[in-house]
Amino acid sequence: MSIYILGIESSCDDTSAAVIKDRKILANLIANQQVHEKYGGVVPELASRAHQQNIIPVIDNALKKANIRKNQLNAVAFTNGPGLLGSLLVGTSFAKSFALALGIPIISVNHMHAHILAHFIEDEGISKHPPFPFLCLTVSGGHTQIVRVDSYYDLKVIGQTIDDAAGEAFDKAAKIMGLPYPGGPLIDKHAREGNPDAFSFPHPRVPELDYSFSGLKTSILYFLRDKLKDDPDFIKNNINDLSASIQKNIVDILMKKVVEASRQTGINHIALAGGVSANSGLRDAFLQKEKQGKWQVYIPPFQYCTDNAAMIAISGYFKYLRGDFAPQNISPYTRYRE
Q1: Which domains does the chain have, with CATH numbers?
Q2: What are the DSSP calls for 123-134, one per residue?
Q3: pLDDT tens digit string along 27-85?
Q4: What are the residues facing 144 on neighbouring strands?
Q5: Which DSSP symbol is given to 161?
Q6: Taking phi first (over 0 means left), then psi (-120 to 50 degrees means alpha), and beta for anything else, what does residue 22 get?
Q7: Edge to edge, what strands does the sheet with 155-160 contain?
Q8: Contacts of 304 (CB under 8 A, 6+ apart)
Q9: In what order do the strands lie in the sheet with 75-81?
C-alpha cells in the first residue's frame, strides 16, 4: 500500500509544500519572498509574516497538483530546524494542527539531513542514488558541512565551518561589489564570462576537515577598498574577472577539504547538496573529479538543491517507515543538531 506524505519547509524565506507517494514526488511548490531584496538579506520578522500569508495557499495548491485529498495523507513531515525561529514556528504550528485535525502523525525533519536525503528521490532528473557509505558536501547560506552518510538514519558531520558558511561568503562578496540580493547566483553568472586566475585571495589555514570563510570576506573587502582608491570604476570594469576569481577561491577551499575527507575515509562516492550546490563552478569541480576517475559523483537536479519541501517529504518517508514520529509538544530549534 502506498504511503502519502505532505512535506512542509519554512526554515528561512521560502514557503514550500510537497506531496510524495512513497519516493516519487507528486507536487513540489515554492513561494518565494521578494520583500527581502531591498534590505540586502533576509529580515526574520518579515519572513515569518510572509510564511503566515503563504503557507495555506501553497499547501492547498500542492494537494491539488498531486491530485489527492488531504484524508489520503499518512503523515505530515516538517522542517523543525535549524533555521529562523519565527519561520520555523509557522511551519511547525501548521503541521501540528493540520495533522491533529486529520488524526495522523507528524514527523520532525532536520533541514540539513533533508538536503542530503534529496538524493534518494525518485525523479526523471535523478539517474543514480549514492550507495552507503558516502560523503556529502552540504553547502548553503547558513551551513557548510562534510557529512559521512552510513544509512538514511546515520549521518555524521566530520567537518564544518567554524564561522561563516560558503553561501554567506558568496552573498557578502556580492554585496561588497554592489550586486543585489541574493548575490551568489549573480557571481556565478558573471563568473562564466571572467578569468578565474585574474585575482588571488588567501586561503584560510584551518585544522582537520573544518572550514572558515570570515577571513576571505575581509580580504575581499580590503582588496576592493584599496583598488577603488586608485580607480573608482574598478569593480564595474572588472566584475566578471572578480566574480570568477572569488568563485574559484571559494570552490578551491571547499574542494580541498572534501579531497582530504575522501583520502582519510577511503570513500570515493561523493555527493553534493544544499543551495550552493547549484553553483556551476562547484558542480564543474565535482564532475571533473569524476571525469578523472577519482570519484563517483552525485549531484541533485537544481529544483532539489535550494530549499524545497520535496527533500522534507522524502526524509519524512524514511522516518515513517521506521515509525519515527514526533510528539505534539515538539519545539523548533535554530542551531544545527545531529
Answers
A1: 4-118+305-322 (3.30.420.40), 130-299 (3.30.420.40)
A2: -TT----PPSSE
A3: 999 987 665 565 566 777 788 898 899 999 999 999 999 999 999 999 999 999 999 99
A4: 139
A5: B
A6: left
A7: 155-160, 144-149, 134-139, 269-273, 296-298
A8: 118, 121, 123, 125, 126, 310, 311
A9: 24-31, 15-21, 4-9, 75-81, 106-110
